[in-house]
Amino acid sequence: MNISQAAAKTDLPVKTLRYYEDIGLVVPQRKANGYRDYGTEELVRLRLVGRARKLGFNIDGCRNLLSLQEDKHRASADVKRIAEAHLMEIDQKIAELQALREDLAPLVAACRGDDDADCAILKDLVEPHKGCGH
User: Fold this and answer.
1) pLDDT higher than threshold 70 for residue 61
2) DSSP assignment, residue 116?
3) Is the distance from CB of 71 to CB of 46 less than 8 angstroms?
4) Domain 3-74, CATH 1.10.1660.10 — does that match?
5) pLDDT tens for residues 68-122?
6) How far is CA 50 from CA 89, 108, 113, 127, in A?
7) Which residues contact residue 81 at a Cβ distance below 8 angstroms, ignoring those fewer than 6 apart?
8) In the chain, helix, strand, coil percent, each to 5?
9) All residues at 6 or more sequence positions from 56 whose CB lies less than 8 Å from its CB, including other chains
């Protein structure tokens, strides 16, 4: 099938399929006329990469998952290790975002948000812990 059909079947933009080909994640066969020809194997790879990307895996993580998916002698423990490491990264990002939220929320609450130029948020950014009464 052509690139538009493959994009429709995998819910990925054509531009993304071209990018994945450029970086070697999914390389379709080429017809005699030079057009891409996506088969079942390429669709499986595209679906795996597309779903992994939605789960936040980076390109290297996708490469690792593709490699394991193709290895019929893999242990599921190998796949689980990659997923667990990614989950730990997600948890760390959540903790960092929560800490940022805890720092920013009092600033937002302290700002009157009116037409006056006086702004507790800007004061705190310039002189930490003075603008919001810390």
Assistant:
1) yes
2) S
3) no
4) yes
5) 999 999 999 999 999 999 999 999 999 999 999 999 999 999 988 888 888 889 9
6) 19, 37, 42, 45
7) none
8) 65, 5, 35
9) 86, 89, 90
87 token code pair? 């989950």
* Radius of gyration, alpha carbons of the chain: 23
Tokens 């290790």 appear where? 81
Within its chain, how far is the Cα of 77 from the centroid?
23
Q: What tokens were used for 13?
A: 């933009």
Closest by Cα among 37, 92, 34, 35 to 26: 37
Distance CA 76, CA 48 (A): 16
What percent of the chain lies above the pLDDT cut of 70? 96
Token reading at 15: 């531009």
